[in-house]
Amino acid sequence: MDLRGLAKHLNLSPTTVSRALNGYPEVSEATRRRVDEEARRFGYRPNPHARRLATGRAHTIGYVFPSDRTLMIDPLFSDFVAGAADVYAMQGFDILLHAGGQEDELSVYRRYAQGGAVDGVVVQGPHIDDTRIELLNEIKLPYVVHGRVGDRETGYPWMDVDNRGAFQRATKLLTDLGHGRIGLINGLENLTFAFHRRQGYAQALKEKGLNLDPSIMFGGAMTEENGYRHSKRLLQMANRPTALLISSMLMVLGVMRAVNELGLIIGADVSLIAHDDGLPFLNAEGLVPALTTTTSSIRAAGGRVAELLLTIIADPASDQPHELWPVDLIVRGSTGPVRH
Amino acid sequence: MDLRGLAKHLNLSPTTVSRALNGYPEVSEATRRRVDEEARRFGYRPNPHARRLATGRAHTIGYVFPSDRTLMIDPLFSDFVAGAADVYAMQGFDILLHAGGQEDELSVYRRYAQGGAVDGVVVQGPHIDDTRIELLNEIKLPYVVHGRVGDRETGYPWMDVDNRGAFQRATKLLTDLGHGRIGLINGLENLTFAFHRRQGYAQALKEKGLNLDPSIMFGGAMTEENGYRHSKRLLQMANRPTALLISSMLMVLGVMRAVNELGLIIGADVSLIAHDDGLPFLNAEGLVPALTTTTSSIRAAGGRVAELLLTIIADPASDQPHELWPVDLIVRGSTGPVRH
DNA sequence: GGATTTTACCAAAGCGCTTTGAATAGATTT
DNA sequence: AAATCTATTCAAAGCGCTTTGGTAAAATCC
After folding, report:
1. Residue B53 is nearest to which of A53, A75, A98, comparing CB atoms?
2. CA nearest B107 in A: which residue?
3. Nucleotides on strand D lying under 7 Å from protein C-beta
4. Is A6's Cβ below 8 Å from some Cβ in B?
5. Contact, A215 vs A185, CB < 8 A?
6. Eight-class DSSP state of B289
7. Is B40 an 8 Å CB contact of chain A?
8. In this complex, do A99 and B79 lie within 8 Å of one another by their Cβ atoms?
9. Which one, of B221, B232, B238, B293, lies nearest residue B260 by Cα?
10. Rounded to 5 degrees, what angle do the CA atoms A293, A299, A302 make?
């Protein structure tokens, strides 16, 4: 059943039926009710392609994966999108996913913009010198960045959590507990979130007059194995760190494995703080000892980014959002005073 | 630049330009070359909505999330889709994602079918009595199921890995090593994959004349915490199992945590076999000891399901695929003979 | 060399919707 | 009672593409 058929059935013109269904005012209440009812009865659904062609609005948001970075965003991605999906579904938007293939990311954006395939895109995993925002500004495709591009704070719409502040406070907690030698097990540091975390870590050390020791800092893919391998390396050093700051829950599992293997006691011999993105299948509180974490929900972030993007799309003249969310520091059992 | 503009510029009709670009034969080679070149020069891209409206083909595949089941598919999902994304990107297909919102899954399918929003859908995480395939058959929306619906093997297109065979062989490996008391830490058993794994486990025990003990079997969300909690419970029993079969890498991390905590030695005091979906951030070989696993790549499965679906879409009369992939059993260090 | 086929192109219709501009009838104003 | 609004409705154009049903010109046939 298409619009014309429905109109014919109702003895109305397609114009009126369309207006009735889309809530325009120039339709009498009686007619609107009649139309709504019959539309429901026939299970009428407007053809989305026709509507898009006619209105020029896709009612679709694009999520494009940088093919080379897929791996490390992976475990977080589904939760990030899950948070967004709900927002979109409520407003009748769809999500268009692109990953892989031979076409590069920037060219996908170009194609999206030109064909009107999407009304906007979400930029994930920004680099410290990301080239995507230049392009998106140029082609005028609405977007919101989840995270920031290095230290740039203006000129593009973003929503981020305070990774710098989080790791600064976490580091400070450790120094306050007397730890002077704190290892860092970070994500890839050309990604801004990891870059910021290192900055926070560095700054807190500096404030205490401690200096950075690159030999106890690691930045790389956030896998369980990297957590294991590098924490083990650090903990076997003669002058081993007494505390570790870890950028992901997955890595910390590897770290705990290493710690146990070396016969060390978490919270006593070595203190651990990890960043927890709130993944539903990895619970920091359920670990033994329960993990002290910097916590922010990747799912909530996904939802918020979606909201911001929809706002921009609905009103392109609205203010560019620059939204920084605080990160909770939750002290649990994996941190304790340094032992001498 | 739209088709008409391009045609005008070339002094051709839109008909000819369209045909040239789409590879129809009734265009001279010279003209085709000229069109291709100018199209590239202008960066012309056909408007996808217009094309979809005209052809009735969406060039889009839908992935709809069962909202209640989102949680447990999550960690696997991104890899599953990543495998598919590549296939789709190569063939110029897009992925439409739906999750959350107030609309229920079946009604999303209905909408997709009616509006022609997608050319087909992938059904993930089938239950043992899944209602989705009935609906999809009824509304004639092409689909492929990743997995199976309980013990049904025909009447719908599917691609699955041999979960039953895998756990049967894994169990047999353990019984051959002398283990008579083997615990099972499984996923939710109303999902077919977990149901099949239990069948395989049960059958292998039966073949050895061993009987099932429900008190050492668990089925639930595949979280790290469940792995920890339930393995710990089992290993603290007076008559504790000497080996555990675990349905996911995430769970096995929890299991290893419990084992270490109890001071047991993996491979000696307790043997472990886990199922490994080949997630890039969780490497079975990197664990200590390296983990004996049943292994199948969820990423490859995602790609294969995508291929099958595209085949069906291209030729609806083609044979319904029923494809069962074997699962590798890779013996590493976490399994050893039982100790008395 | 006229009849037939093939080649290369085009005009126009149509996909299913939205939206502009106009029309009708009834209500209100002067 | 004529003039002006207002509330409803509609016809038709248009979104940008594909595809059907042609038509000339060139190539092939007998």
Report:
1. A53
2. A43
3. 7-12, 14-22
4. no
5. no
6. S
7. no
8. no
9. B232
10. 125
B90 touches strand D (CB under 7 A): no
pTM to 2 decimal places:
0.92
DSSP assignments along A108-163, one per residue:
HHHHHHHHT--SEEEE-S-BTT-SHHHHHHHHT--EEEES-STT--SSS-EEEE-H
CB within 8 Å of chain B, chain A residues 313-332: none
How far apart are alpha carbons B190 and B219 in whole angstroms? 9
Query: Å from B297 to nearest chain A CA?
Result: 15
pLDDT for B234-267, tens place per residue?
A: 999 999 999 999 999 999 999 998 998 899 999 9
CA separation for the pair A176, A166 (Å, rounded): 15
Give A247-303 pLDDT, tens digit per residue.
999 999 999 989 988 999 999 999 999 999 999 889 999 998 999 999 999 999 999
| CA-based nearest residue to A282, from A133, A78, A89 | A78
User: Whose CA is closest to B122, among B71, B69, B81?
Assistant: B81
Amino acid (one-letter) located at B207: E
Amino acid at B233: R
A322: Cβ–Cβ under 8 A, 6 or more apart, which residues? A153, A154, A157, A158
Q: Where are the alpha helices (DSSP H) in chain A?
A: 3-10, 14-21, 29-42, 48-55, 70-90, 105-115, 132-139, 163-176, 192-207, 224-235, 249-261, 298-314
Closest CA to A219 of A249, A254, A184, A174: A184
Percent composition of chain B: helix, strand, coil (DSSP 3-state, to 5): 45, 15, 35
Distance from CA of B58 to the nearest CA of A (A): 8
Q: What token pair was written down for B159?
A: 């691609």
